[in-house]
Amino acid sequence: NNGYGGSATSTVVVSGNQVTNNTQQSGSVFYVFVNNAIASVTNNLVMGNTYNASENLDGIVFIGGYGVGDLTFSNNQIIDNTASKIITAYTENYPTTITISENVIHGNTFSGILSPNALLEITQSSGDSTTVTDNSITGNTGTSLVHIGNSSYAVNPTFERNNFDDNDGYFVYNNQTSNYSIGNNWWNTES
User: Fold this and answer.
1) Calpha distance 163→98 (Å, rounded)
2) Which of 117, 140, 146, 177 holds its CA 20 to 30 A away from the CA of 111?
3) For the CA atoms of the chain, what is the radius of gyration?
C-alpha cells in the first residue's frame, strides 16, 4: 500500500487493509509517504510478514512525510512480523508531524545484520515532530524497542501513556547527543 499526497489541502486515507504473510526482499511491506499533504492510516492489519534481504532500510512498515502536513498512524495492528526494523517513522523538512497512537504492536521479532535493529525507529533529515501515545506494545523481541535519532539531526519525540509490557531488549537506543523525555508510560513495574 502506498499513499502519496500532492498539496497541503490533499488528504490521503489508507484504511481497512490486510497485509499478511508476505516475504519481502526490498522496500517495505506497508509504505505510506506524504508530500505536503494530510494522511490518515487507520484500521489496517500487518501480520506475519518477513523481510529476508540483507538490507532493510525502511522496515516492515514505513510512515513518512515531507514538507507541510500531518500523518496519523492509529488503530492499526502490527503483529508477528520479522525484520531488522518493524516500523520506521521519518520526517523531512519540518513541520511534517507524525502521530502514532492507539495501535496494537505485538509479537514482532526485530533482529538481523542491518543496524539498527529496532521495533520502532524515529529519524528525520531536519526538524521533528513525532508523537507516540496510547499504544499497546507487548511481547516483542529484539535489540532495542525504540531507536531514536541519527548522527546529523536531533529528534525530540513525545512518548506518553503507552503500555510497554513483556518485551525483550533495550527500551531506547539514543543515537544522538540531545536528550528528550519518555514521559508517563507503563513499564509493568512498581518502581
Assistant:
1) 19
2) 177
3) 15
